[in-house]
Amino acid sequence: MDNAGYTTLTRQTGLLREMQTVANNLANLSTTGFRKEGVIFAEHIKALDGKEASLSMATANVRLTVQLQGSLTRTNGTFDFAIEGEGFFMVETPDGERLTRAGSFTPNAEGELVTPDGYRLLDGGGSPIFIPPDARTIALASDGTLSADGKPQTQIGLYIPADPTDLTRQNGVLFRVAGDVLPVEETSILQGFVEGSNVNPVIEIARMIEVQRAYELGQGFLDKEDERIRGVLQTLGR
């Protein structure tokens, strides 16, 4: 295979990865707290010997998480919380502390607020949040202060990574931070709401069509290159 073929293959690999990313975005259109993901293409150019033109290769190994605010949906759930502004909830998982925007919680058997997967929600000091079993009313102030029957219990912690590039998606709604995290103080938390996915289906479908057409063009070029090389080999073999 010549240089043009290798260049096209790297492009096709990147387009396939982007198509998978777009498909995953659409699959999580209704996932609470989901953050849209994109792919960043990078070009690598290498000088060749002699008078040959330089060789260009493309990679798409870097993923970008879009942090636009998702729409807020009223649920009236006592333990449904939505962040309005920047910041993440911090939850405790078996692999360590993780950040999330998915704010649907419920008390477990021990009275601690946990995610649907059983991960404990942490307060501003990094401790689990306990809900008194005999509490009749639970209220959340916009600054994250959680009260039971009018008595403040704790304050939900909100955090952001010190370096935004340290944020790595672990799964659909959980993020790992390689470096330090900083507390967020000027962001509001709403009770009885959840934040939806920030995926725009119209934009994603349009992008899927664009990527698919680009992939088909590349595949057509590879097919023609294959035919050309076969023709050359047949001619030389006569």
Written account of the structure:
The protein is α+β, with helices and mostly antiparallel strands. It is elongated. The model has no long low-confidence stretch (mean pLDDT 87). It has helices spanning 3-27, 201-236, and strands at residues 37-46, 55-65, 72-74, 81-84, 88-93, 96-100, 106-107, 113-114, 120-121, 138-140, 145-148, 151-155, 158-161, 167-169, 174-177, 181-183, 188-191, 193-195. It is built from 2 helices and 18 strands. Strands 5, 6, 9, 13, 14, 15 and 16 form a 7-stranded antiparallel beta sheet that branches. It has a 3-stranded antiparallel beta sheet with strand order 10-11-12, with no helix packed on it. The protein has a two-stranded antiparallel ribbon with strand order 1-2. It folds into 2 domains: 3-67 and 199-236; 72-195, no CATH class.
Secondary structure elements and pairings:
Blueprint: H1 3-27, E1 37-46, E2 55-65, E3 72-74, E4 81-84, E5 88-93, E6 96-100, E7 106-107, E8 113-114, E9 120-121, E10 138-140, E11 145-148, E12 151-155, E13 158-161, E14 167-169, E15 174-177, E16 181-183, E17 188-191, E18 193-195, H2 201-236
Antiparallel strand pairs: 1-2, 3-18, 4-17, 5-6, 5-9, 5-13, 6-15, 7-8, 10-11, 11-12, 13-16, 14-15
Helix content: 25-40%
Shape descriptor reads elongated
Structural class: alpha+beta
Strand tally = 18
Q: What tags apply to this protein structure?
A:
single chain, about 240 residues, seven-stranded antiparallel sheet, alpha+beta, about 35% strand, elongated, 2 domains, three-stranded antiparallel sheet
